[in-house]
């Protein structure tokens, strides 16, 4: 994972998976491989990428994103390094450890990242996760933003098996308790 620079417009300061926008003429796997190399210094063949999720920002947002999530085995003998521009930190961390650090307030995880980590934490190996990902039909997941009791709240669609609501507290999205 990388930590986005505090000053970037989208999810500044949050720990996320490397990624970014499509350049003209690119397909999703091409962009994912390019962004992985630019932000984390990992070179990966696009054929190694397995798509497994797609998140779309709520309709209320002025800036809309359509984000694809991919799994891949990290190539041997490559060391991840953040770009020190968009990303100011990089860390290899298990899904469970990332979630624990977020629960303790040490790192910020956007709801799609949190939910993805919750999905991945059940797998004991990369092979298990990749086998599962290959069976997934990738359909858009779009939370709904609302205000409940004066608190900004994201409500996840029924397809999400883990936390169904996230609240905005102190500038960070957190699972509702």
What proportion of the residues form beta strands (DSSP E)?
15-25%
Outline:
globular
Report Rg: 16 Å
- Poorly predicted regions are none
Straight-line distance between termini: 25 Å
Q: Give the helix tally.
A: 4
Helicity, as a percent range: 10-25%
Largest sheet: 4 strands, antiparallel
Average of per-residue pLDDT values: 90
Q: H/E element string?
A: EEHEEEHHHEEEEE
Count of strand segments: 10
Q: Strand sequence of the main sheet, in spatial order?
A: 7-8-9-10
* Computed structural class: alpha+beta
Tell me what the structure shows.
- Helices cover 23% and strands 24% of the residues.
- With 177 residues, it is of the alpha+beta class.
- The radius of gyration is 16 Å and the shape is globular.
Summarize the structure.
This protein has 4 helices and 10 strands, in the order ββαβββαααβββββ. It has 177 residues and is an alpha+beta fold.
Protein traits:
177 residues, four-stranded antiparallel sheet, three-stranded antiparallel sheet, 24% strand
SSE topology sketch:
Layout: E1 2-4, E2 15-16, H1 28-40, E3 50-56, E4 66-71, E5 87-90, H2 95-103, H3 111-120, H4 126-133, E6 140-141, E7 144-148, E8 151-155, E9 165-169, E10 172-175
